[in-house]
Amino acid sequence: MDAIYRTQRHFYDLTRKYYLLGRDRLIRHLSPPPGGSVLEIGCGTGRNLIVAAKAWPDAHFFGIDISEAMLETARAKVAKAGLSDRITLAQGDATAFDAQALFGRPAFDRVFQSYTLSMIPDWQGAIREAAAKIALGGRLDIVDFGQQNGLPRLWRKALFAWLAKFDVSPRATLREAVEGVAAAQGLEADFLPLRLGYVWVARLSRV
Ligand SMILES: C[S@@+](CC[C@H](N)C(=O)[O-])C[C@H]1O[C@@H](n2cnc3c(N)ncnc32)[C@H](O)[C@@H]1O
């Protein structure tokens, strides 16, 4: 990931604004409980964590990413936003990480994965791992590229070819994977395509 992001991280936020759709919707709906905890897995430049920390001033935020280059940018942005006391960052692999060792807590009121599963080879493992980090009464929110079902076939072909250049593969069986994790871990699952299937959102809740 460092090889992909070492240069891109400098113009990442500006360019992704126009095509990583659904991120701000996810943040608007986070609604962490007062004093609650929120973990972003694959936090990249920290853009989402900063927007979320400003939107939800009572909550504490945590982020992991596998790329040390991305985390370097994230740390600088968080410090510039004056949020270093509310956003804690650490290096970790979405498919296996020890939240207790990294952040001193095993689970979080809100966990989210934004445009990260489409980059992780063992993305089903990353969903399992994230779901295991949901506190009682909490949930995991996922937003990622959909299969573009409501859009022209040529659009889908061009988009997927372009995303492949960045090692991004929209996950056709995301819904099935989320439902499988829900069944295995005793969670409730919801799934919703948005914007003609450009974006897929999924939610796992521990009720
Ligand atoms: C497309 S970026 C999305 C960043 C951010 N979530 C956003 O919405 O802007 C994907 C991020 O996932 C990270 N990533 C990829 N594989 C990972 C893994 N196995 N564990 C943790 N992070 C990973 C990348 O380093 C990158 O920062």
Rg on CA atoms, Å: 16 Å
Residue-averaged pLDDT, rounded?
Answer: 95
| Major sheet characteristics | 7 strands, mixed
What distance separates the N and C termini?
A: 35 Å
How many DSSP helices? 9
Provide a descriptive summary of the structure in words.
The longest helix is centred in the middle third of the chain and has 13 residues, at 68-80. The protein starts with a helix and ends with a strand. It has 9 helices and 7 strands, in the order αααβαβαβαβαβααββ. The chain is α/β, with parallel strands linked by helices and 207 residues long. Helix 7 (123-131) runs parallel beside helix 9. Helices cover 38% and strands 24% of the residues. Bound molecules: S-adenosylmethionine.
Which secondary structure elements does this structure contain, and how are they paired or packed?
Layout: H1 2-8, H2 12-16, H3 23-28, E1 37-41, H4 47-55, E2 60-65, H5 68-80, E3 87-91, H6 99-103, E4 108-114, H7 123-131, E5 134-145, H8 153-164, H9 174-185, E6 188-194, E7 199-205
Parallel strand pairs: 1-2, 1-4, 2-3, 4-5
Antiparallel strand pairs: 5-7, 6-7
Helix pairs in contact: 7-9
Supply the key terms:
207 residues; alpha/beta; 7 strands; 24% strand; globular; binds S-adenosylmethionine
Short summary:
With 207 residues, the chain is α/β, with parallel strands linked by helices.
